[in-house]
């Protein structure tokens, strides 16, 4: 793929927020205390979504920050290798603000405990308003933010400022991405997630994440509340029960794509990248949800996150093999 850094045309997909270096055990089912070898991968939701978009041939970039140590250099090189524009990847000069590490355990099909190393402050939490290229934010066909970007200042203000600058232009996507250990309280998370949702046209999250914003209830009820709040397209992830997609003219539950799970941590980001691709392709919500579900399953069947993001043909092949509707 050609280097996109030499052209100033608007991006297809621009994401903002968390980045990490993910360290996954070489052996599944082993407690972290007993792991002897790890595999290193690029990680972080917004980064993974940008990589997924690039895999679909979309012009993608990510707004984030890394540390000044070697892992920061690794992040830039890995992103460039995936065809993601790195012009908005800043470097925090504070030597104590290191590129985050994430360790996990693998206990398929549904247990993947995570340990974050983001103290004393992750560089991606130090993004400021004056570091934003608001022209790029406003002109991107898809702009993507996450709840994690709201958990600390100055990233919180920068994220909300970027969303406000969009003026609710389609497609402005907010992924709820609620990580309780990164927040001071659930009450604070509810406050700022509500503020971000009010500025978005598309939102997604699992039932617990959605409940934080609009309360408990059946997924159809939760989706309806988000639509009433002004969101135009809602995805409620239901785990082994699949996904609910809702829009102004309809609602549908999409069954999960069957797969033997290896690592479920990248599935949500693959789902998000597929949503970006489908929106840009002009797909109807039902087709989009089926494709995104299959993309998530594809990555759940592999160890890596960013490295495992599929091309469209690979997703369609999985859908054909598992007899999923493709259009």
Structural overview:
By secondary structure, the chain is an alpha/beta fold. It has one domain (46-95, 120-321): 3-Layer(aba) Sandwich (UDP-N-acetylmuramoyl-L-alanine:D-glutamate ligase), CATH 3.40.1190. Helices cover 34% and strands 19% of the residues. The protein contains ten helices and 13 strands. The strands form two sheets. The chain has a nine-stranded mixed sheet with strand order 5-4-1-8-9-10-11-12-13, with helices on both faces. A hairpin with a 5-residue loop joins strand 11 and strand 12 (243-247). The chain is globular, with a radius of gyration of 18 Å. The two termini are 28 Å apart. Residues 1-7 have low confidence and may be disordered.
Write the layout of secondary structure elements.
Elements: E1 13-16, E2 20-25, E3 38-43, H1 45-55, E4 60-66, H2 70-81, E5 89-91, E6 101-104, E7 114-117, H3 134-139, E8 142-146, H4 155-166, E9 172-175, H5 186-197, E10 202-206, H6 207-214, H7 219-228, E11 233-237, E12 243-247, E13 250-254, H8 267-281, H9 285-300, H10 312-321
Parallel strand pairs: 1-4, 1-8, 2-6, 4-5, 8-9, 9-10, 10-11
Antiparallel strand pairs: 2-3, 6-7, 11-12, 12-13
Helix pairs in contact: 1-8, 6-7, 8-9, 9-10
